[in-house]
Amino acid sequence: MAVGTETQLAPRRQAVARTHTRRRRFPLGPWAAVVGFGLFAFAPVYWLLITSITPDSLVYRYPVTFFPESVTFDNYRSVFTDPEIFGWLANSVIVSVITAVLSVVTSMYMGYSISKFRYRGRRTLLYFVLSSQMLPSALLLVTLYGVFSTFGLLNTYFVLIISFTTFTLPLCVWMLKGFFDNLPDDIIEASKIDGASNWRTLHAIVLPLAAPGLVASGLFAFMRGWNDFIFALTLTGPERQTLPPALVNRYIGEAATDWPELMAASVLVALPVAVAFVALQRHLVGGITAGAVKG
Amino acid sequence: MTMTNKVRPQRRDASGSTAHEPQRSARRISDLRFAWLLILPGVAMLLAVVLYPLVRSLSSAFFSESLLYPGREFVGLANIQAALGDDFLRLLWQTGIFTVGATVLPFVVGLGVALALNARLPGRSILRGAFLFPWLLPAVVVSFLWMWIFDASYGALNGLLEQLSLIDEPRAWLFDTATARGALIVAKSWNAFPWIMVMLLAALQTVPEDLHEAASLDGAGKVRRFWTVTWPHISGVAGIIILLEFIWNFQHFDLIFVMTGGGPAQTTQTLATALYDSAFRSYDLGQAGAIGILWMIVLLILVVVYVRFSERKEAN
């Protein structure tokens, strides 16, 4: 993003820099800030990882040791060989992947319709979609619990998938509408003049061009399903529960918490999102900031 | 919105002569149908999973209703009166402190990191990605991690403060009425600042470099340059960020529920956790609906104030 401006202004800036040698060669201030804020950001992550590979005997010791003398992978072993945790992991994968797919499909259709067609109520629809994310989920849960219970749907994948998909719509529709807005109408017109139907134009011409947006919104939807706590806690029992509420029920109780094992389980929960993020970072950051800077 | 609405392609054909009329009207109808078909699944889901539950939950406020048995009985404003009497101001105050704290602190940190990373540092895009990490973590992982850091016996915070000789004996940060709320705000801020940082960084990159050069040629210092050049360019985005963070924190549930469960002595209870407790611990849907209504009113006031404020700012 900045590259464009920097190259445009480069000659002028160099000229200014040459005449006024105020610019320090080493940006000391920014680096000091990066290190300071970095400590706040990464010390907890260090602690998460270190605790997960520290033997119990060293974790529960006083005073606290920040650099453990020995390392163990027992905590990871007990997490990975626990059939219950594996079941919750499978639930999380199933729910989040289906949520991501369903959410991308639904929101790309909605985003395309809102972006490229003009009809009355379109704007109202967009505001309705956007404002729905301001609603407290606890409030919606009260009724959803009753409705799903009436239809005998509690403790199914369906209730989680349909809820998560709906709650990701605002953001995904917003992002994809932005992508479609940037797509020149000429492409669509040309395809129609060639005799392609609306349906074919959308699928064969438009969607491939919007692929980066689809990826970003898919990742958001996946994260929504993967990270959710309150819906999975309330609407499902142990058999269909995803990892977040299941881990809370499992580890945070009256009895003393097994912190090293819980930290290892936390790494397991965080890992898929982190890996996906590293792979798709550029699309994701673009997606996060898309609406803000333009709007 | 009715089916009689007209659809027109975004760009009208220049050659809109009468000879093409029959064909164009056929195109119009199919465009309208198509546009409507596309939004149908999403709208159906929003109606079923958002709008209906919202209306139904809010209407519960006027009935005596429980999750334990079917049926509802109209009770008028009794639930709302009960909710207002029932420590409502204290709940609102506690929600307000958490919301403001968990908005201001990560904003300051996010702005600091964004400004630092906006300098031409080598490896800045890698740093930006790395700084996003706390934001990626699921809320329960953030909760687990900070519960462990704040642990009364073996927590890293106690260990650190003791080694720095800032405290004499370990403290139970999350079980102390004086520190529990602050601890929650720190955890929430750690989780939230990366998103703010990325948004602000994107905004900062729209600030024209030559304005900075011009200001510094005029002898403006760093602080002055920030307020006269940088801030006007990013204040729009900053306003959106603060409004969104405010709304999200106002309804925040996960961290509070997992880390303190509203305790100790109800000091970290907010409207969100109180609503959840009414519905799923006391099974009192009427009470939950009443809290919901009061909540919507407060939120609406806040949004109206914000809109008024930003309109006036724009007018100036």
UniProtKB/TrEMBL annotation, chain A:
Cellular localization per UniProt: Cell membrane
InterPro entries registered for this protein in UniProt: BP-dep_ABC_trans_perm, MetI-like, MetI-like_sf
GO cellular component: plasma membrane
Keywords linked to the UniProt accession: Cell membrane, Membrane, Transmembrane, Transmembrane helix, Transport
Membrane topology category: Multi-pass membrane protein
All copies of domain ABC transmembrane type-1, residue ranges: 89-280
Gene Ontology biological process terms, A to Z: transmembrane transport
Membrane-crossing segments per the record: 28-49, 85-112, 124-145, 157-180, 201-223, 262-280
Broad class of the protein's primary localization: membrane
Highest taxon of the lineage: Bacteria
UniProt family annotation: Belongs to the binding-protein-dependent transport system permease family.
The protein, known as: Carbohydrate ABC transporter permease
Organism: Ruania alkalisoli
